[in-house]
From TrEMBL:
Native source species: Enhygromyxa salina
Record's protein name: Lipoprotein
Length: 238
C-alpha cells in the first residue's frame, strides 16, 4: 500500500467507515493514568460504554442518538465545515488542514447548496450520520486499552499503543452531577491532521492540498468525483 493510499485510509476513519486499525501515531504526548478520586475501573467502563453507544448510533444511522455522544464543540466544527462547503474557494481551502478539506469535499458531493443553506452545524452532523458519512466501523475498535489524563477529564481508546478515539467528559442537562464521556471529534481532527499531512507531504507538494484531498475522496468512494466540487456544492441536477 503506497503512502497516498495509507494516508487516505487514515484520514477517512471519521467519515467513511474505513478500518480504524490503520491509524498511526498522532503528534501528542502520551497521557498518564488519572489520579481522579473515582474508581478507575468504573471510569474505564464508563468510557467504553460511551464509545459503544456512539458506535451503535452510527451503525443505526440514528442522528439524534449520535449527537448525544459527541462533545458540543462538534457542532461548531460542523458549522465551520458547512460555511466552507458553501463559500470557500480553492485558494481558501488550501489554508485548511487536509482532513477538513476532505470532509468539505465529501459534503459538497453529498449535499446540495440548497440543502446546506437550510442546515446549521448540528443539522449537518445529523445529516452526515444519516448518510453514513461518519465512520461507522468505530464499533470494530477493541476497547481494552483505555487511558485517562491526570485531570480525569480527557480520555483515549488506544489500539496497539496508539490513540484511535479521543473522549472528553462534558456535562449537559440530564447528565447528572459528573457529566458524561463523549467522543471528541474536533480533538481527533486536530491531532490526526498533522500526521495525515506529513504522510501526504509529497502529494500535497506536487498537487496542492485540495487536489490531494480530492484524490483521497475518490479512493474512499471508489468512484469518480466531479472536479466541480473544488469550487462549491454540486447542484441537484449535476
Amino acid at each position: 500500500m503506497n503512502a497516498i493510499t495509507r494516508a487516505g485510509l487514515l484520514s477517512l476513519v471519521l467519515v467513511s467507515g474505513c478500518k480504524p486499525t490503520v491509524i498511526l501515531e498522532a503528534p501528542e504526548p502520551e497521557p498518564t493514568p488519572t489520579d481522579a478520586d473515582s474508581d478507575p475501573l468504573v471510569e474505564y467502563e464508563a468510557i467504553r460504554e460511551s464509545v459503544r453507544h456512539y458506535a451503535a448510533a452510527l451503525s443505526a444511522h440514528d442522528p439524534k442518538a449520535a449527537s448525544e455522544w459527541v462533545v458540543s464543540d462538534t457542532f461548531g466544527y460542523y458549522e465551520d465545515l458547512r460555511v466552507a462547503a458553501l463559500r470557500a474557494t480553492r485558494e481558501q481551502l488550501e489554508a485548511w488542514d487536509l482532513m477538513s478539506v476532505m470532509l468539505i469535499l465529501q459534503i459538497r458531493t453529498q449535499i446540495t447548496r440548497e440543502q446546506l443553506e437550510s442546515l446549521d452545524g448540528l443539522g449537518l452532523f445529523e445529516r452526515a450520520v444519516t448518510a453514513g458519512l461518519v465512520g461507522e466501523q468505530i464499533e470494530d475498535i477493541v476497547l481494552d486499552d483505555v487511558w485517562l489524563d491526570d485531570t480525569g477529564e480527557h480520555a483515549q481508546i488506544r489500539l496497539d499503543g496508539e490513540p484511535v478515539v479521543w473522549l472528553r467528559k462534558e456535562q449537559r442537562e440530564g447528565d447528572g452531577e459528573h457529566g458524561r464521556w463523549r467522543v471528541d471529534i474536533p480533538e481527533m481532527i486536530r491531532l490526526l491532521g498533522p500526521a495525515i499531512e506529513a504522510m501526504a507531504h509529497d502529494a500535497v507538494s506536487a498537487d496542492g492540498k485540495v487536489r490531494t484531498a480530492l484524490t483521497f475522496v475518490e479512493l474512499s468512494t471508489e468512484a469518480f468525483v466531479d472536479i466541480a466540487v473544488l469550487d462549491g456544492p454540486l447542484d441537484a441536477t449535476d
